[in-house]
């Protein structure tokens, strides 16, 4: 994990939830920690991290994830033992 990805990880765990986390940054962070991104139908994606999985929709037309999506990704990372 490089320094930019670590900053994204710290931002993911901020309270209150950041409204500026972009999907591309979360995707790169997930891949850096050994996760898998699977494309579903339409804008659906599945994030697989260790033995956990999360299904969400990629944000569009905006690039930023919604707060409930950020909380779900945060929970996935926490359950996978990946915290800053």
TrEMBL record:
<protein>
    <recommendedName>
        <fullName>Type II toxin-antitoxin system HicA family toxin</fullName>
    </recommendedName>
</protein>
<dbReference type="InterPro" id="IPR012933">
    <property type="entry name" value="HicA_mRNA_interferase"/>
</dbReference>
<dbReference type="GO" id="GO:0003729">
    <property type="term" value="F:mRNA binding"/>
</dbReference>
<dbReference type="Pfam" id="PF07927">
    <property type="entry name" value="HicA_toxin"/>
</dbReference>
């Amino acid at each position: 994990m490089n320094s930019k990805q670590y900053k994204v990880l710290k931002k993911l765990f901020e309270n209150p939830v950041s409204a500026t986390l972009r999907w591309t940054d979360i995707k790169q962070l997930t891949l850096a920690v050994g996760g898998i991104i699977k494309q579903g139908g339409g804008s659906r994606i599945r994030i697989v991290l260790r033995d956990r999985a999360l299904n969400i929709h990629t944000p569009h037309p905006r690039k930023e994830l919604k707060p409930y999506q950020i909380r779900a990704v945060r929970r996935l990372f926490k359950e996978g033992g990946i915290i800053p």
